[in-house]
Amino acid sequence: MPDGLMQLLDPEAIVLGSDASTNEEIIRILAGRLERLGYVKSSYADAVVRREMSIPTGLPLERPDNVAVPHTDPEHVLKPGIAMGTLKQPVIFANMEDPDEMLPVGFVFLLAINDKDKQIEALQAVMATIQNPQALDGLRSARTLEDVRAVLG
Asked: At what angle do helices 133-141 and 116-130 cross, to 10 degrees?
């Protein structure tokens, strides 16, 4: 079972089965949650969208629904947190390893990190989750927060 991600996720920053149709739309939905919850400044969403265009974060997983881990500079963050979104239909993100390759993404982990130690902890927790196909399958079918807790512990 993935370790620690549930402790870093704010339950109110989890969006299951989003209808978002673009990477910018899901980034803005999740960033809006983090802003309302006091994790980030109003500048955060625009900064993440700009960064995603120049430094993409799509991660190929050899699945039909890959993962993206968008984030931005600490100056836009008030306190560390992670928002997570699953999508009804994958949206396109550029591959972080090959920005010319477009990836269908079904899971977005939006990082709001302003501390290097927290960044490592957050990335380790996200990586443990995304490297676990059963966890992603569980998140794919999750319909409630309790479903997410059952997957992430």
From this structure: 90
